[in-house]
Write a structure and sequence with these properties.
CATH superfamily of the largest domain: DNA methylase specificity domains
Radius of gyration: 25 Å
Oligomer: single chain
CATH class of the largest domain: Alpha Beta
Helix content: 25-40%
Structural class: alpha+beta
Number of helices: 10
Shape: elongated
Strand content: 15-25%
Strand order of the largest sheet: 2-9-6-7
CATH architecture of the largest domain: Alpha-Beta Complex
């Protein structure tokens, strides 16, 4: 392709020390170095799928420790690669972050691109394309935990168009990401509004007409007259999921849920939707909703009840499901069934569910928009990255 050139990654690194480097070696960085604030450490959790970079779940080290690890510092505009575990995982540290620097973990590598050769955002899209992810995964050492090393990254080759075309292609793809982020932002607002409505009505008891309702004593304190306190086991059944190993799953139309949420798909459903999934092992007490028929593996429960499931979807996350007496933390059904919950009159619950469903309908609409945007972006990405789709500089 005219104007396109092949580069090794080491050739597009900035002309400065440690522009392309791995994480700290051995005991230079351990969990004992982590403190409550300071310089954030980038780990795999900060490089989630379909997101350039996450500032959630940081751990920190002191300024002094970060200075000891200058070779492993990363800065806004740097790309970060996972070298052990989830091979193909890549992130881009945003320019507008409030942190001036970071430290990469032992499982990461970082690249500071030469701005005269490569656009950092274009590179991010290159490395997140399916073709590139698979190419990197194919180079991984498969013994034990899959991993690559810095030498593999240095010698890895990519094709780059002229810089002005890189800017243009990155701008096109970024426009889709901005639309996706806008939808995600609106989803977070809607979900927050639904949670706030639940708290107002069922925790603070500030529901419509509450001024006219007398409060009466109960095992959970004063509650509105006509409301009841029930044991969870009297109104809810937690049903066991079914064992389904990853290698036994057959890709299909039905989502597969575990305690961490969606873990894949299967051609057969176990539960008729809509339904609620509750984490049993691992991410204990996690709560997920699925509108369609779905499959639940044995690390989670699915819920059946005569109460509206939408109401229970907001109740269950407020309960303390952790069995502190167990050697391995998990959600014991018998213990969970002893927990008290407040149950309002059915007519009142139906009014709440109508409002909550309206929020969820808007969320579902936005999620469909996100899927369509991602599908379009992912169709464009390989064609733009390979030069198959001609782009004029804007």
């Amino acid at each position: 392709m005219e104007g396109w050139h092949t580069y090794k990654i080491k050739e597009i690194a900035a002309r400065k020390r440690w522009a392309l480097n791995g994480g700290p070696f051995g005991s230079k960085l351990t969990t004992k170095d982590y403190i409550d604030s300071g310089v954030p450490v980038i780990r795999g959790v900060n490089l989630p799928e379909n997101t350039r970079f996450s500032t959630e779940e940081f751990v920190w080290v002191s300024e002094e420790k970060a200075n000891e690890l200058l070779a492993n510092n990363a800065h806004p505009g740097d790309l970060v690669f996972t070298q052990r575990g989830t091979i193909g995982q890549v992130g881009l540290i945003p320019r507008d972050t409030s942190y001036q620097r970071f430290v990469i973990s032992q499982s990461q590598m970082k690249l500071t691109p030469d701005a005269e050769i490569a656009d950092e955002l274009f590179l991010y899209y290159v490395f997140t394309s399916n073709v590139m992810v698979k190419a990197i995964q194919n180079l991984a050492f498969s013994s034990g935990v899959p991993h690559i090393n810095l030498d593999i990254l240095r010698k890895f080759e990519i094709e780059l168009p002229p810089l002005h075309l890189q800017h243009r292609i990155a701008s096109i793809l970024s426009a889709y990401d901005e639309l996706i982020e806008n939808c995600q932002r609106r989803i977070r607002i809607l979900e927050g509004m639904a949670r706030s409505l639940y708290r107002e009505w069922f925790v603070k008891f500030r529901f419509p007409g509450h001024e006219k309702v007398r409060m009466v004593s109960s095992p959970l304190g004063d509650i509105p007259e006509g409301w009841e306190v029930e044991k969870l086991g009297a109104v809810v059944k937690l049903n066991y999921g079914k064992a389904l190993k990853k290698e036994d799953r057959q890709d299909g139309e039905f989502l597969v849920f575990g305690s961490s949420g969606i873990v894949g798909t299967h051609k057969v459903a176990l539960v008729k939707g809509p339904g609620i999934i509750v984490g049993r092992k691992g991410n204990v007490g996690s709560v997920f909703w699925c509108d369609e028929d779905f499959f639940v593996i044995d690390t989670a429960y699915f819920v059946t009840s005569n109460l509206p499931l939408r109401f229970l979807f907001y109740v269950l996350p407020t309960l303390n499901f952790i069995n502190s007496d167990a050697a391995v933390p998990g959600l014991s059904r018998n213990q969970a069934y002893t927990l008290d919950i407040i149950v309002p009159p059915l007519g009142f619950l139906e009014k709440f569910c109508d409002l909550a469903d309206a929020f969820e309908w808007q969320v579902a609409t936005l999620q469909c928009q996100i899927q369509n945007l991602r599908r379009t972006r992912d169709l464009l990405l390989p064609r733009l990255m390979s030069g198959q789709l001609e782009v004029k500089a804007g």
